[in-house]
Amino acid sequence: MVTLAEIVERNTPSELMNYLTQDSKVNGEFAYQLLKKIVLPTAVVNGKKTVTTAGTAVELGSTSELVNGVNVKALLANTDKIYVGDSEVSSSNGFELSAGDQVFVACTDLASIHIDAAVNGEGVSFLGG
Questions:
Q1: Residues pairing with 102 in the sheet
Q2: Beta bridge partners of 95
Q3: Does 26 or 69 have the greater pLDDT score?
Q4: Do 51 and 104 belong together in one domain?
């Protein structure tokens, strides 16, 4: 039998939330252990990033430790698509954002996210923690 401590140690906070919300037999001790494991960010990371030359992947930001990921939002002034992905992101493989669209990226390092643009000088704003 798996102990409560093993479940808490082996799972991410979101997986633990699934246990908590899906199992009606969960007791107060499990909920207490879950809440102790949830980590809140100690700082907010935010900014804007533009792509100088369309067709070139640009790192969203310098290495910055994230706890809860980051929201990436295409600037309202953009006239064409933004592409979000890894260091090889392009118009053929990126997650497309039109002006004002946003996506949440679950990651722990801002530098792992890259953007590309269909038009020179267009970009995104971001907010995470």
A1: 73
A2: 84
A3: 69
A4: yes
How far, in Å, CA of 117 to CA of 98, rounded? 10
- Are residue 33 and residue 64 in the same domain, yes or no? no
How high is the pLDDT of residue 3?
A: 63
Angle between helix 28-37 and 13-22 (nearest 10): 160
Give the Cα separation of 128 and 47 in Å (integer). 10
Q: Are residues 109 and 58 part of one domain?
A: yes
Q: Which domain holds residue 84?
A: 45-128
- Give me the residues paired with residue 84 across strands: 95, 115
Determine what percent of the chain falls in helix, strand and coil, rounding each to the nearest 5.
Answer: 25, 30, 50
What pLDDT digit, counting tens, does each position of 29-39 carry? 666 666 666 66
Q: Does residue 59 contact residue 67 with C-beta atoms inside 8 Å? A: no
Residue 11 sits in the same domain as residue 53: no
